[in-house]
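Continuing the series of single-chain predictions for the mutant panel. This is the parent chain; the variants come on the following pages.
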Amino acid sequence: MSNENRNLEFKEEQIVNKTDLIIRNSRPEDAERIAELARKCFDPPEIAFTKENFLSQIEHFPKGQFCVEFNGEIIGSCSSVIVNIEEYPKYHTLAEISDNGNIRNHNPNGKNLYGIDVIVHPKFRGLKIGKSFYNARRKLCENLGLHSIMFGGRIPNYHKYADKMTSDDYVGKVMQNKIFDPVLTFQLKNGFLYKYILPNYISTDHESMYFATFMEWVNRN
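Parent structure:
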């Protein structure tokens, strides 16, 4: 077993002091470990960005890429790119908005910070790491004077209801707290507003039935 695989095996009973969690910008030497973590976190693993994607993201927009360390190991990561959203189709895909994960389309003069990835090790969820990533993005958005943060959010529980309701109906029930969705519920609680459904957003996201929710947080500062 490789050292990288051992790095991902944490004990269930492990107690984590939040002060031991370090949030920082991702570095090129982190890319391989982040890619492995991403494959562990997504179902199916093919959704995950690759080492080459993460290296390209760090190269083109280093300030927009974050990771979380615990005891020297990377247990979470998030990626973003700056765009002018009006330059892309209303019903865009993740591949279109992220340049297939490479963000060579990053526009330093754009006005929208677009989140393209958030991953947290399954055994370290519940520590508000995702919220910390969202706060880091907000601070970045404010520091750069950008108009807003946007992203296409997965709705991974939708496949359980797809034979009973449309994606719009599903989102409506999640917003009414009648259905729990681990991604959308979290995003709504963190101040993001739902705008509309993005069809065929991730071609391999079977859990979401290929749909995503287009979400936005507007910088009022």
